[in-house]
TrEMBL record:
Start and end residues of each stretch annotated as Disordered: 1-25
InterPro entries in alphabetical order: APP1_cat (IPR019236), Mg2+_PAP (IPR052935)
UniProt protein name: Phosphatidate phosphatase APP1 catalytic domain-containing protein
Superkingdom assignment: Bacteria
MF terms (GO), sorted A to Z: phosphatidate phosphatase activity
Domain Phosphatidate phosphatase APP1 catalytic: 207-358
A Pfam family recorded for this sequence: APP1_cat
Sequence ranges of Basic residues compositional bias: 11-25
Species this chain originates from: Bifidobacterium actinocoloniiforme DSM 22766
Amino acid sequence: MVGSSGGGARSAKKSGAKAARKPIRARHVATSFDAASPRERFERQSLPVRLARMGLTTGFDIWVRLSTACCRRLGWHPRVDPYVGYGTESYSRLICRTVLAPPGSLAGSLSRGIRAALTVPAPRTRVKIAIDSTPIETVQVGDSELYDAPDSRRNRSSRYALSDRSGFLDLVAEHSLAPGPHFVTYRVDGRPLVPGPLYTVASSTGIGVISDVDDTIMITQVPSMFKAAYNMLLANPVKRASVPGMSVLYNRINDLSPGMPFFYLSASPWNVERTIRRFLEDHGFPRGPLLLRDLDPRPKTFVPSAVQHKHEFIQQLMADFPHMRFILFGDDGQTDPATYAQVVKRYPGRVLAIGIRRLSSREAGLGVPGRSSAASVPEMDVPVFYGSTGANLMKTMLPYLEQARRDGRL
């Protein structure tokens, strides 16, 4: 009887271990810029625009094929570059990219932007993914990068995911995870496991921050095309300058509601994700996922504009966290005030406050001493705070947020 009971316990333990290792189901993400809006659809463009887009997308495809063939002849093989994931207790959004790299090269190593921009994708690469050692099981539905209809013949359950024609892999995994930091591991054949962070936000979290990066917290001088290009492509990545006082302001806001998630948006390409993440770490900003832009030309949506990119990801976050209100941060060098005004109008009650950093004449590329770069700001139903530094914003914005916490709105 005792031996039988012990055998039953061992059997129960094995069954429990098997249940604990049950694969996580996942599906490929189709964001709204994967499916073009009616105004942006390829067939509605003029003939010259269609011909130009076809020429550029065809040229890009030829470059990918030639560079891929050349790299494979040199003995390079696929490597995974993981990006920061995020989600709630019930799902996670995981983003990574497969690229061709020499043997022994490490993912996440810093390099100048021009080198990162010339990264050669490894299309259609199998990637095995696990969250906290539990494998992800994926369902492939069509090819999101070509925007074809779901093809039941391609539906399959497997222990790997397949990257797209540009090497990107964007998945939503359904699971049950405790809030807090977790780790995702990625593996391709012939390479060691590559870890990546996963931020799991409690679904009950009431407030979050969405912040622009370029010229809001990191000085890039985006309004000046040549200076922005130099900073992105040629500048030393470890010497990126932070806007004075912004990291202090963000950490003070984070102290008001510990566990508040921070999401960072940038129109920079995914190739420089590691550089921006290193910048956030070096300058002491609260940790959080980066949401960058895919600059590869697409057959139907082509290259999403910076405005479209921000709209799409803010829309995605609003849908991902339907009960969360947000504090938005941007600058007046481009279109952030107008973009945020549209967000406030589209999502009434979902924006608690907006902070706008005013750029100096030099940063805005105006070249005229004393001339303001501020653009006209639409009327909004939420308080908007302005300042050229974090300290300026802190004087007016922080008291408002502290009062909001006392009132139970934070």
